[in-house]
Design goal:
The complex is a heterodimer. By secondary structure, chain A is of the alpha+beta class. Helices cover about 30% and strands about 20% of the residues of chain A. In chain A, strands 1, 2, 3, 4, 5, 6, 7, 8, 9, 10, 11 and 12 form a twelve-stranded mixed sheet that branches. Chain B has twelve helices and ten strands. Classes of the chains: A alpha+beta, B alpha/beta. Chains A and B meet through helix 1, strand 5, helix 6, helix 7 and helix 8 of A and helix 2, helix 3, helix 7, strand 8 and strand 9 of B. The structure holds guanosine-5'-triphosphate (GTP) and magnesium ion.
């Protein structure tokens, strides 16, 4: 059994592109993934050590992806990166069994960009077939402290989704659910928001386990109404203390960024260049077109018609003048 | 009556920031106009990143893929038109259609669009050599697309809804060097006409006497815009090569001129439609008879020319009832727009 890889990001020259794409993933499918995950507006809390994780079927494949801040920027904006592996749907069962292993080793197994020498010069490539990693069956995976909710989820899988917090506890619960042999293949979005899930839904991709950035309590929620049907009682979040902080690659030529838990407002990176606000500089507010207001299409049409009529009238007038002159000359010359 | 408005512009030019500001301003209402999203979730989708922008002073993320949503424009609580709003990852414009779905979609969107709003970075236009500004704003690519799908077709006499409204948003006007702001932004307008001269020349040609096309079918205007407002952002790094300026938001944003280009696009498009829809059945027959058969079949989709004419008359009738609203929209917007064609 083989797998393929997926790498989606942008560089300075080329806008978001699947630089590495599974051979049978179509442009349209790539576009669906982009517009779904693009609903995450802020990736600054996501790092290779603590990425958002997605697993869902699309086209011929099942994808397992991680999503984080690449550390690169364009026009001052953080550039996100999505990378991971793709397995043919026909191998779903096999893949489901190996998922906990892939998740436990995501830092190695999903790190596609690591094999790219320079993303700035990278061209679009089709993924090679890679050999299936050596997955140890029954690998020791620490279960979550309380798996009563997972037990309930087994019974309610068709009606409900499992919601888990976006912290290390949640990740353990995710791995516990994925390792549970009672489930068929489970699809998840761990570290996301409702717009992403809604967009995937629109493409008929149904997610079973969801963790929004603001999910605090593990619970089961109805797939149709999103109402909570069951909540884990007595859950005490071990976050945020244990939520790993992103360790971002920092551009070598820039001074240190503020620590991620510093107050949010952005400081100019080079404060010395920042100019104080000029008190009277309000050219935009004063901006005015004065006499030059634009005409609407119909005003233009009418104006041009009027102009045409006027020139016609004038030419008629001049024609009659010429006619009269002609007559006069003829009479003077004694013809007629 | 439904309109389709497509946002155009290279990556990083300011499309998404403009969209967020527009939807925020118009959600609350401005000069009697209001935009309503199809559903509450759509509004939240746009308002959340706007909140991050205002409170956390974080610019919106670079767009991944394409986003299309449906809205209604309302004037004094009365429905004016619905419209589809499309925002893209700007780079879609520089990629062949077989390499990306966004790119293929963009081509289709242009063909279907009634109005386009071109968003161009005024700072880039002012501070980069013209030839670089053309590449960074994608002005040449934009002309290429408009020419292929809107202009050429019109010259050949094909297409039924010939013409398109073009609004050029010169955004980031707050960080312009002072000399470009002087005389009501004269310096900026002149340079913008040069950068977008493909479009300017086409529209200008339509206006000249020799043209057989009706010039009013291509209303085109521009305006300086800022989402942050004067003095509320600083340039941290002016950028070079593919990299655009890195800008830091220092004070609370105060958007300026944001709603004018939008109302201009919608208002002129309604007005333009009112004009073309009133044509006589004879005129329509004659115009359609000159068309390529395949194109004509696409347009008629099984209808006869008479039926098509009747449908158009019905729409024209609806537009008549909208007349005061159209006038309300254009009278607000047109007074602030500067003609793309030098007078
Ligand atoms: N000074 C100033 N900078 C702005 C303004 N609007 C946008 N910017 C800057 O331009 C950058 C890019 O803006 P976006 O709206 O993300 O650009 P876009 O056209 O959507 O880009 P893509 O999504 O890559 O196609 C922002 O991150 C800001 O740095 C403005 O009104 N004033
Ligand atoms: Mg954008």
């Amino acid at each position: 059994m083989n797998y393929e890889t997926f790498l989606f990001t942008r560089n300075q020259q080329r806008d978001f592109t699947a630089f590495m794409r599974p051979k049978e993933l179509t442009n349209k499918e790539i576009s669906t993934i982009a517009s779904a995950v693009g609903n995450v507006n802020d990736v600054s809390e996501l790092s290779p050590e603590w990425p958002a994780l997605y697993c869902f079927p699309i086209g011929e494949y099942i994808l397992l992806l991680r999503h984080y801040d690449s550390g690169r920027t364009h026009a001052g904006r953080n550039i996100p990166l999505l990378e991971g592996i793709a397995v043919k749907r026909t191998r779903a069962r096999h893949f489901a069994a190996a998922l906990p292993h892939f998740l436990a080793h995501q830092a190695d197994l999903l790190a596609v960009v690591r094999n790219v020498p320079d993303i700035e010069t990278q061209t679009v490539q089709k993924s090679p077939d890679l050999p299936w990693p050596d997955v140890q069956a029954g690998e020791a995976i620490e279960g979550a402290a309380d798996d009563s909710l997972v037990n309930e989820f087994v019974a309610r899988l068709t009606e409900d989704r499992l919601f888990i917090p976006f912290n290390p506890d949640g990740r353990l619960m995710l791995i516990a659910a994925l390792s549970d042999p009672r489930f068929p293949s489970l699809y998840f979005a761990f570290g996301t928001n409702s717009d992403v899930v809604a967009r995937l839904n629109k493409a008929e991709i149904d997610i079973d386990i969801v963790s929004y950035f603001n999910t605090n309590l593990p619970s089961l929620r109805s797939r149709t109404t999103n109402e909570i049907t069951s909540e884990l009682t007595g859950y005490v979040s071990s976050a945020p203390k244990s939520r790993p902080k992103p360790a971002k690659p920092i551009k070598p030529d820039l001074p240190d960024l503020p620590p991620p838990d510093a107050p949010a407002p952005m400081r100019p990176l080079r404060e010395t260049r920042a100019e104080p606000k000029k008190p009277h500089d309000d050219a935009l507010k004063r901006y005015d077109t004065g006499e030059d207001a634009m005409l609407t299409p119909r005003q233009m049409a009418r104006k041009s018609q009027e102009a045409e009529q006027q020139t016609e009238a004038e030419s008629e007038k001049s024609e009659s003048v010429i006619g009269w002159l002609g007559g006069l000359i003829a009479r003077l010359l004694g013809r007629k | 009556m439904s309109l389709k408005v497509t946002l155009f512009g290279g990556t990083g030019q300011g499309k998404t920031t403009y969209t967020l500001a527009l939807l925020y301003l118009m959600a609350a209402g401005i000069e009697g106009f209001r935009i309503e999203a199809e559903d509450a979730n759509t509004s939240t989708k746009y308002l959340n990143p706007w909140r991050d922008f205002v409170i956390a002073k974080k610019w919106p993320a670079p767009t991944m893929g394409r986003r299309e949503d449906q809205f209604n424009l309302v004037f004094q609580n009365e429905f004016v038109t619905d419209f589809r709003w499309v925002d893209y990852q700007g780079g879609a414009i520089n990629i062949p259609t077989d390499e990306s779905d966004e790119s293929a979609q963009l081509h289709a969107d242009i063909q279907e669009s009634n109005a386009v709003i071109i968003v161009a970075d005024a700072h880039t236009i002012a501070t980069r050599p013209i030839i670089e500004a053309e590449m960074l704003t994608s002005s040449t690519y934009i002309f290429n697309l408009l020419n292929t799908y809107k202009f050429k077709e019109a010259v050949r006499g094909e297409g039924i809804n010939n013409g398109i409204t073009i609004a050029l948003v010169l955004t980031k006007a707050d960080i312009l060097p002072d000399e470009f702001k002087a005389n009501n932004y004269q310096g900026l307008f002149e340079r913008s006409r040069e950068v977008f001269r493909g479009v300017v020349d086409f529209v200008e040609e339509q206006r000249s006497q020799t043209s057989s096309l009706r010039p009013w079918l291509y209303p085109a205007g521009m305006i300086p815009v800022s989402i942050v407002g004067e003095g509320n952002a600083t340039v941290v790094d002016p950028g070079q090569g593919y990299e655009l300026a890195t800008v830091s938001l220092t004070n609370a944003p105060q958007p300026v001129n944001v709603h004018f280009p939008f109302l201009y696009a919608i208002g002129n498009e309604l007005d333009r439609n009112a004009l073309t829809l009133e044509e006589e059945v004879g005129e329509l027959e004659e115009r359609l008879s000159r068309m390529n058969r395949n194109v004509l079949n696409k347009i008629l989709r099984g209808r006869t020319i008479k039926q098509l004419h009747q449908e158009r008359m019905d729409v024209a009738e609806t537009l008549k009832t909208l007349e005061p609203k159209i006038r309300a929209v254009t009278s607000v917007a047109n007074k602030k727009m500067r003609s793309l064609i030098p007078s």
